[in-house]
Design brief:
Blueprint: H1 2-9, H2 12-131, H3 134-156
């Protein structure tokens, strides 16, 4: 209210002078604000001009990286599929190996059984072969040879 009473006590000339003073102060503040706004706009434009190409390059690089990552993910998926196929094949092979091992076990068991069953017969045969008089057999063969030789010579004459 002090200012209102001061304005009431002033004449027109004083009011105009006061108004002119406020107007100059207001104009000066407006110019400073305008200058600050222009400066801010210039700084933002410089930042935009400086950063925009880098930002676009970064975005392009990110897109290329994402494409490569997608390709790698597809390749990894293919490798995982192949690994699963190999694991399945290995499982089938292990099953075949188990079957072969089982068959080999049966074969060995049967071979042992045959050996056990025939061990006595082989032992008897070896004992009988040891009992054979090979010297006497050789002598008998020589005697037979001596006896057949004249017959052989006689049969040659008729040929």
């Amino acid at each position: 209210m002090n200012h209102a009473e001061d304005f009431n006590n002033m004449n027109d000339h004083q009011l105009l002078a006061e108004l002119l003073t406020y107007e100059r102060k207001d104009s000066r503040r407006n110019r400073i604000a305008a200058f600050a706004n222009i400066l801010l706009i210039v700084v933002l434009l410089v930042a935009l001009i400086t950063l925009l190409p880098k930002t676009l390059a970064l975005i392009d690089h990110m897109e290329a990286s994402l494409e490569e990552l997608d390709t790698l993910a597809k390749q990894a998926n293919d490798v995982i599929g192949e690994a699963n196929s190999l694991a399945d094949e290995a499982g089938r092979m292990m099953s075949d190996v188990d079957s072969l091992a089982s068959d080999a076990g049966v074969f060995i068991s049967n071979a042992n059984k045959v050996l056990e069953e025939n061990t006595e017969a082989v032992t008897n045969t070896v004992q009988r072969l040891n009992e054979v008089d090979f010297e006497g057999l050789n002598e008998a063969i020589e005697n037979l040879n001596d006896a057949i030789r004249p017959l052989s010579e006689f049969a040659r004459m008729f040929r």
